[in-house]
Design brief:
nine-stranded mixed beta sheet; Protein Transport Mog1p, Chain A; about 220 residues; alpha+beta; 3 helices
């Protein structure tokens, strides 16, 4: 593991860089309608369910790994890199787990970004707005991106909003077709913004993404 200082802006916008696509085919975009602004602090609609991981996949997860003030069980055998950056407004933590690279260089990736606000920092942006903003950045880089409707739920008592995405769903055999998911939340004390993302290319995504999502669903406050 290695620790590096990086710019905060790069951390906020770099979740979509997990795709690392060499080219993109045009496809219809599925836009989520903008969510109205709320009162200060991050806010979400009431969660409709509690999300649980597939119990059969738990044996493929490693022990809990600390991520800032939280913890998560990553997939066994994945290599992790950590980065931290600090600004006047917040401290940003990034954790990325990479699976074994295949002959073409592509690999499954799980990433957690946690941005902890400094005292007196205030935001009036909702979680849905944050997710829409991130998807907008991803669509600029990957014009062939489509995503599912937003869902709200609980992971170990923390309210999340999530969506699943595809890139290049209609691409030919010479272009990679990526699948992935994004989970966003605010810590229960309102001080940290949490983003969990994962992606992999077809057809490997059918095996790797369920495992990466099982890992994401272990996220908790110790």
């Amino acid at each position: 593991m290695r620790l590096k200082k990086v710019r905060y802006a790069a951390l906020v916008l770099s979740a979509y860089s997990l795709l690392a696509l060499p080219g993109h085919a045009k496809a219809a975009k599925k836009k989520h309608p903008p969510h109205p602004q709320a009162a200060p602090s991050f806010s979400v609609d009431a969660p409709i369910s509690t999300w649980h991981q597939n119990p059969s996949l738990l044996t493929q997860l490693a022990s809990a790994f600390p991520v800032a003030d939280f913890a998560l069980r990553p997939p066994q055998g994945y290599a992790v890199e950590q980065h931290v950056s600090d600004s006047e407004a917040d401290t940003a933590f990034q954790y990325e787990w990479d699976g074994t690279a295949r002959p073409d260089g592509r690999k499954p990736v799980l990433r957690v970004d946690i941005t902890r606000a400094k005292p007196n920092a205030v935001s009036v942006v909702t979680l849905d707005d944050r997710l829409t903003e991130l998807l907008g950045h991803m669509e600029q880089k990957s014009p062939g991106l489509i995503h599912s409707p937003y869902q709200h739920g609980l992971i170990n008592g923390i309210s999340f909003v999530r969506t699943y995405f595809k890139v290049n769903p209609d691409a030919g055999p010479d272009k990679p077709r990526y699948h992935g998911f994004i989970y966003k939340a605010t810590s229960n004390d309102g001080k940290s913004m949490i983003t969990i993302t994962a992606s992999d290319v077809e057809p490997n995504n059918e095996d790797t993404l369920p495992l990466l999502e099982a890992a994401a669903l272990t996220f908790r406050k110790p």
